[in-house]
Amino acid sequence: MPRLRLAMAQTNPTVGDRLGNATTxxxxxxxxxxxxxxxxxxxxxxxxxxxxxxxxxxxxxLELSEQSLAAFASxxxxxxxxxxxxxxxxxxxxxxxxxxxxxxxxxxRARNCASVLLHGKIQATYAKHHLPNYAVFDEFRxxxxxxxxxxxxxxxxxxxxxICEDLWRQDGPIESLTPYPLGALLVPxxxxxxxxxxxxxxxxxxxxxREMNNTICxxxxxxxxxxxxxxxxxxxxxxxxxxxxxxxxxxxxxIVCDLDLPLAQSGAPLPxxxxxxxxxxxxxxxxxxxxxxxxxxxxxxxxxxxxxTGTRDYVEKNGFPSALLGLSGGIDSAVCAAIASDAIGASxxxxxxxxxxxxxxxxxxxxxxxxxxIGLHHRVEPIANLVxxxxxxxxxxxxxxxxxxxxxxxxxxxxxxxxxxxLVLTTGNKSELAVGYSTIYGDSVGGFAPIKDVPKTLVWELxxxxxxxxxxxxxxxxxxxxxxxxxxxxxxxxxxxxQDSLPDYETLDNILDLLVVQGLDLPxxxxxxxxxxxxxxxxxxxxxxxxKRRQGAMGPRISSVAFGRDRRLPVTSKPTTFS
Amino acid sequence: MPRLRLAMAQTNPTVGDRLGNATTxxxxxxxxxxxxxxxxxxxxxxxxxxxxxxxxxxxxxLELSEQSLAAFASxxxxxxxxxxxxxxxxxxxxxxxxxxxxxxxxxxRARNCASVLLHGKIQATYAKHHLPNYAVFDEFRxxxxxxxxxxxxxxxxxxxxxICEDLWRQDGPIESLTPYPLGALLVPxxxxxxxxxxxxxxxxxxxxxREMNNTICxxxxxxxxxxxxxxxxxxxxxxxxxxxxxxxxxxxxxIVCDLDLPLAQSGAPLPxxxxxxxxxxxxxxxxxxxxxxxxxxxxxxxxxxxxxTGTRDYVEKNGFPSALLGLSGGIDSAVCAAIASDAIGASxxxxxxxxxxxxxxxxxxxxxxxxxxIGLHHRVEPIANLVxxxxxxxxxxxxxxxxxxxxxxxxxxxxxxxxxxxLVLTTGNKSELAVGYSTIYGDSVGGFAPIKDVPKTLVWELxxxxxxxxxxxxxxxxxxxxxxxxxxxxxxxxxxxxQDSLPDYETLDNILDLLVVQGLDLPxxxxxxxxxxxxxxxxxxxxxxxxKRRQGAMGPRISSVAFGRDRRLPVTSKPTTFS
Lengths: 579, 579
Known about the structure:
By secondary structure, the first copy, chain A, is α/β, with parallel strands linked by helices. Chain A has helices at 18-34, 59-78, 139-142, 165-168, 173-177, 201-212, 299-317, 331-344, 361-374, 384-394, 398-420, 430-435, 456-472, 481-485, 505-517, 522-526, 532-544, 546-550, and strands spanning 3-10, 39-42, 85-95, 109-118, 121-127, 149-154, 157-161, 184-189, 215-220, 222-225, 228-231, 235-237, 243-246, 253-260, 274-279, 323-326, 349-353, 377-380, 423-424. The longest helix of chain A has 23 residues, at 398-420.
């Protein structure tokens, strides 16, 4: 069996930052080359980042991307790496579609491509065939599908290429390539993290490797891009379904591997609509490769890493020097502070306690303990003097007065942000956002929401996990026990607890999971044994809070259905029935 | 030539409100029946409203819609109208797609249908073939395409049916039906209003009528649904391309018409994949039909009607008793107040002047004059005492202090909304939103933004038009001349004008139109003769303000590219280039 030394570059691209992205890829190419790699494979759209959304509809964006691609190919050649094939993900276009002239606003679109670079030139290009247009994906909006398969004959090895969604579908390229005796299938991906994704992603790759009877080299990108978090976890799966190499999760990584692959069969009939391109690359290097241990992390640890990665990349990719958040003494702000500190270091995190006349001493104490445990900056700014003028001038009471407290805090945080340059983090959790248990323009202010997709019960679990993790490392547990154990309260009136207005969080989160994540509707949820009136009430709350969520900050998506581009529902909606 | 008495029901559905929508259709059916109509045609998804977005993915939503459809058919029969064919738009499903089991989150979808109801039963159903997935449309996400044509043989007349986008594309159903000698083509639509849409929509229908050599009966829905405004303007175009009947714009309407149509040719070969269903309906009524005059409105009058309709329907469909807005004395709030008053009546509109220490007397006077002209409720709430505690407690100055003023106003408006139940309207215009010239959580607070899609220069034009229109009607012009003529200023510091920070609005709006509406990029705009540095600066401002716009209120879309679902761009984005 011929041997191939293959590198997989698992990078953290920023959308549009072709300079930064290509520079990272060039550094990885250097490392790969120096380890004797013959081929280096990147993630999907690694040159431009993913998703590029409507940037794909802009001629200038596509032109500059093609120029960057050509420049990157030249740079590889210039730097003496021209004889290593680099297979890189990039957009190409524009391509005009039928009717794009006659149907208004039906613009030309791009193609989602992977090109083979060698000796400073593009040798061949594959365009993604299946364009996902569900969940968070809008590829049918911005891309047109490819219609040609590609096989690279690299010396005496045949390598197939498909991109991400192509691997998930049985029809199209996978169906065409399956009968062909490939050496390996190379798959660039931009596959966002979600809880339990590893229960579907690796099994899929394994199934395909077995069905196709070839090795699959699956490269994913990493990092946060707005609400999406990419977890890496690149993998090579052999035809028996064994994972033989792994990329790190949530971190950039270069995987270099020797693969013993079957000899290309020169007489094998080419699949329909498939091009075979012959290239010849350098000999594999003779140096020994390091063994890469496969690291296992706990489920909660993985979720934590996802939240930290999403938060870090939002801060860093948008150039914020620091982050600021309100510290109420409660569990949500404590967990957000810990995430932010893990993301960018406690020295860049600023906490503000903003006690009102209804705030308890234990809240102040818990916030101070948290700040002390973590080592973040902490100040106390009482709001009584800020709130009182509103109450007295407008004669407020009840809900209006409660909300003024939350909004005074919002104004205060934004004023500090404007003065000092911090990104404001908003600390609402998924359960609150679902039912609208928050004050818009109050506790919702901020550019990023670290636990937006974390239900309250999971917030507690993560807090406990983070504390245990600290203990395992011999560090101070960041989150005060009392913040974890006390009854949750917004403290907007005396003696208030969340359960005055909401069912217990375990019930609420179970119902919300069935509704939002599993996509069940009223009868489906009731059939799981929940009270019909309670379910109906929660559905109404969720529906009424849609307008608030539309105006909310983005935050890292860790579930399979987050609030945001996963779930597109009208604000104006009346679920009545004619009968 | 046989004659057909056809009714077109141009209704204003609310998404999900099958009861309200069907009740309106039943009343219209009554009127149509009483005028002797043989067939009544509705708009696209008239039963459920449009767009239903991800509601189309919910089994229960689809089941309840099918139940409502069946109940509506029965109600027609029960009320003695069973012998009039009613062709109604509705969703059907769920339909499972290839791979919906194996690809995670690739859900079953619906079909976008029009069904022929007669004698209490569904006689035939056509499913939309072309699913728009660009601009504001996401139909490929929620629907699967139909693959069968439908011809209704109604006595001796053949009627074809296609839905909305099908008419815009040359391939598919239009291509199949063109060679067939149809009597008329019936087209239910949900075609959103946009400026200049009438320069493409009627010409398209005219072209198709001529090409197909048949009459086209084009029914659109009307009304506001979140950010979309449907303008009606239903039409019947004869094979010569003449418009022979018109629905009102922006209002519900029933159009009843006698059409002399060619005799069905029994020997005509049926197009491929097309079903022909024979039905027999009542005789046409003998009563004379009223002549319907075709009403012409000016372009600015039409835009005004679109803004009023969008605002009215957001208020009414969401059940708000009243609307509240800040009145600065400036042109934006004046125009918003006039729109709101035209939408729901001045007695339901509440204006608040919130002068700061930097506010001029003329601003207060202009706001008072506006309120007086319109007859809306008006109060003055100075903010000095609300702002001062923030400034002194935090030691604020500069931008941070400016923003506290705007945010104190936001808190004040929201407090009044919480106390009194008003919907808060936010008064930002498209130019400001584009470049981020607004204070988030300050002047941006509110649930609806009436002039969100109106560039500043158009705000002035609309103000002048509205005043002239009042004069034409012998009424008091609502908007004070001084609000129109003075230099725009945020009045957040002494002597401030917008042009301290921005280019003149005419230049700005021209550049923004090229960028946002026409979709040009930097080189394309510079090629139109604008200064490269200025264009680059504006592009940077527009890009940096993306995070604010994501958290902004929705407002009526009147251009072909509004900020919102038309324009999906990342927040995190660095347009650098590797070279």
